[in-house]
Amino acid sequence: MTAPDSTRSAPLARPGFDRAAHERADPDLLESARLDDATRVLVLNGDTAPLAAPGSLHWVAPPAVPSGAEWAFLGRTATGAAALVAVFARGEEDLLAAPAGWAPLRVVGGSLTASDAGAFVEALSLGRWLLEAPFCPACGARTQTRSSGWSRHCPSCGREHFPRTDPAVIVAVTSATHPDRLLLGSNALWAQNRFSCFAGFVEAGESLESAVVREVREEAGVDLVDVQYRSSQAWPYPRSLMLGFLAVAADDAAAEADGEEILAVRWFERAEIGASLRGEGDLILPGSASIAHQLISEWHASAP
Questions:
Q1: CA pair distance 8, 13, nearest whole angstrom
Q2: pTM for this prediction
Q3: Is 227 helix (H, G, I), strand (E, B) or coil?
Q4: pLDDT tier at 191, thresholds 50, 70, 90
Q5: β-pairing verdict for 166-175 and 181-187
Q6: Cα 91 to Cα 88: distance, rounded to the nearest angstrom
Q7: How many whole angstroms separate alpha carbon 88 and alpha carbon 127?
Q8: Span 245-304, pLDDT tens digits
Q9: Per-residue confidence (pLDDT) for residue 2, from 0 to 100
Q10: DSSP assignment of 46-62, as one string?
Q11: Cβ proximity of 242 and 281 under 8 Å
Q12: Torsion angle, CA of 50/168/11/83, rounded to 10 degrees?
């Protein structure tokens, strides 16, 4: 397993947003920030956020936020202003007017600035936890939000709870004998002609490398002879940390879909991948916000 290239980062893992985590312990942080006219708020309606322009989030002042939100501290903007998130369960109507409408992270994440992308993925990851985990999993009591939205305290049993992140691996598989071939799979839930990298959650007591080998063998019937870590990014659908790899198949001919989760596997030529990345042809690849798109794009750009 090779060391990652520190100059490379996935679409939702680019630096540029200051989380200012050391401030979360201040019990008055959220209240004082909501009273500050300089504070900027990102409002989430389910997994969608308002856009100021196609590549920019629409931040608002605290008074513009409708009542009933779950609040949390995200960090500091480039000007030093507090950045908050106000989270709402998905409603049918937009919560406030947005110049460029509302959009989910998976659609616009790849086109946002590094700062906005970092804020959106943080807000959505934290927001889902705030909405979906109000009760103590140990005793069932309703918990109290602390740490400016980053922890929950159970008043019944005294336990402290924090946002959960589930590690998952995702891997682009190349051919050992044909450098211009990439193996991709089509999930049973996807539209026809949609293909992507192979992915799955890391099981209890399993290393990342073992998970990569197991997932590819289970889904595509292929053993791997080389596994290289590339990069990672948060993927809050619902709460994953995706760790991206590049691997080499031991035997191209062994590729076969499991027929349950993966309905089709196919070796694609570099030219086919390139055409799809340019928006040509029938092949549908992952969106630009995903680490799968990055893995495929990097492979395509690495032509020998």
A1: 9
A2: 0.90
A3: strand
A4: confident
A5: antiparallel
A6: 8
A7: 8
A8: 999 999 999 999 999 999 999 999 999 999 999 999 999 999 999 999 999 999 999 877
A9: 43
A10: TTEEEEEETTEE--B-G
A11: no
A12: 40
Residue identified by tokens 């100059």 is 7
Sign of CA dihedral 40, 46, 51, 56: positive
Residues β-bridged to residue 267: 183
Q: Where are the domains of the chain?
A: 21-132, 136-163, 166-301
Token pair, residue 140, equals 């069932």
Q: In this predicted model, what pLDDT tens digit does every residue of 85-139 receive, in sequence order?
A: 999 999 878 899 999 999 999 999 999 999 999 999 999 999 999 999 999 999 9
Vertex 278: Cα angle to 220 and 295 (nearest 5): 40
Residue 73 CB neighbour total at 10 angstroms: 24
CATH number, domain 166-301, options 3.40.50.300, 3.90.79.10, 3.40.120.10, 3.40.1190.20: 3.90.79.10
Kindly calculate the radius of gyration of the chain based on its CA atoms and give it in whole angstroms. Answer: 21
Ramachandran angles phi, psi of 175, nearest 5°: -90, 140
3-state helix, strand, coil in the chain (%, to 5): 25, 30, 45
Strands 240-249 and 166-175, bridge-based pairing: parallel
Report d(CA 165, CA 235) in Å as an integer: 9
Relative orientation angle of helices 270-277 and 291-301, to the nearest 10 degrees: 130
In the chain, what's the furthest Cα-to-Cα distance?
64
Tokens coding 293: 């798109």
